[in-house]
Specification:
Elements lengths: L3 E9 L1 E8 L5 E11 L2 E8 L2 H8 L5 H6 L6 E6 L5 E6 L22 H12 L1 E9 L9 H23 L9 E7 L3 E10 L7 H13 L4 H10 L3 H15 L3 E9 L4 E7 L1 H12 L1 E18 L5 E5 L5 E6 L14 E13 L5 E10 L1
Parallel strand pairs: 14-16
Antiparallel strand pairs: 1-2, 2-3, 3-4, 4-5, 5-6, 7-9, 7-10, 8-9, 10-11, 12-13, 12-15, 13-14, 15-16
């Protein structure tokens, strides 16, 4: 059964005390029993209400009393190997030995830290987690359903296009996110990447979230044009859509994401309402148009098969740069050896106020 990990109350190498919900909304408190069973990490769990959980967090009751005097006399052994999937076995009270229970007088040292909680959730799931905190002027704990849906879809689109800038469009689906939790704290939405963690407790999606932060942090025209040229052409449209909803509703934003579970490091960036609105005004000045295809002839001076970026030196000594959505086009071609003809689609990015233009070339055929 899949459980949603909502909080980790104690962590030492592994989550020791965990709060989770099943698909029916039943909340459980999980206490670590063993990390070395054939079925995975073993927890002893019991259903718990929010009221009793808050008493535990507030040091009004100890951990032992939750198990010896439960609200519902049901006990479970829960096993997990990660990804929030649990094997659940009901266990009778007569089979719970004294050494399975916590010591008397253990009180919760609760210190709510959303970023630390993201790291803990990433450790349990084996996937990188991120969070959007959407904040209005009144720090409301509710949000319009359609507005939230639009923000989530636009955020996913921005993450995918940013991932394409780094790793090419063929890897776009690597950037797909699942929603794992929502919280009325401002209004927070937590996401989980589909990519598994590597040996360093990170994944490619961490670098992608770094690009998202860089885009959201754009503060001047020079930086904006630099990012327009460097990133995938779809990034500009994705960024504009995402920021537009925030600006129209006067929201500020806090973006948090896990960098490494091994180092227990995470990044949190905040973008206030003034910055969001100023960024949207800059983006509104930018117009995108498609024009006729164009061909360039020259020798290749750079090519990156990871993200499709290339540079072609023409006979007049000028270097034209672009990218390819199909990185396989760059496989097997020689740098500084042979003349090629690059056939490209052209997109023109124009500043409607300053009449400045940038042309972006997307390679679709090599002759």
């Amino acid at each position: 059964m899949k459980l949603e990990i909502t909080e980790i109350l104690s962590f030492y190498e592994l989550p020791q005390i965990v709060v989770a919900r099943n698909v029916f909304g039943t909340q459980f408190l999980l206490l670590l029993e063993s990390d070395e069973t054939e079925l995975g990490i073993q927890y002893l769990s019991v259903p718990i209400s929010n009221e009793k959980l808050n008493l535990f967090k507030g040091k009004k009751i100890d951990l032992l009393s939750i198990y010896t005097d439960p609200e519902v006399a049901q006990y479970y052994l829960m096993y997990t190997k990660g990804d929030n999937e649990f094997l659940i076995q009901e266990i009778g009270l007569e089979h719970i030995t004294e050494d399975m229970l916590p010591l008397e007088g253990f009180y919760c040292e609760y210190n709510e830290n959303p970023v630390e909680n993201l790291v803990n959730k990433s450790i349990i799931s084996g996937r990188i987690s991120s969070s959007l905190a959407i904040v209005d002027a009144h720090n409301s704990h509710q949000i319009d359903c359609n507005t939230l849906a639009t923000i989530i879809l636009n955020y996913q689109d921005l993450v995918k296009s940013s991932h394409a800038s780094l790793y090419g469009t063929k890897n776009t689906e690597e950037a797909r996110l699942d929603i794992i939790a929502t919280q009325a704290a401002s209004f927070d939405v937590e996401f989980q990447s589909m990519l598994p963690l590597d040996l360093f407790g990170s994944s490619k999606i961490s670098e992608t979230f770094g690009v998202v932060d860089k885009l959201l942090g754009i503060s001047d025209d020079e930086q904006l044009y630099k990012e327009v040229e460097e990133q995938h052409y779809k990034v500009l449209g994705s960024l504009k859509k995402f920021v537009s909803v925030l600006a129209e509703n006067k929201y500020s934003l806090r973006h948090s994401w896990v960098m490494s579970t091994v180092e227990r490091s995470a990044v949190e960036k905040s973008f206030d309402t003034n910055h969001v609105c100023e960024l949207f005004e800059k983006l509104k000045q930018i117009d995108e148009t498609e024009s006729d295809d164009i061909s360039f002839e020259g020798v290749l001076v750079s090519a990156d098969a990871k993200n499709g970026k290339w540079g072609l030196l023409q006979d007049d000594g000028k270097i034209v740069r672009g990218r390819s959505d199909d990185v396989n086009l760059l496989n097997g071609i020689q740098i500084k050896g042979i003349k090629y003809i690059f056939k490209c689609h052209t997109r023109t990015i124009k500043d409607l106020v300053k009449s400045k233009e940038i042309k972006i070339y997307t390679l679709y055929e090599i002759g």
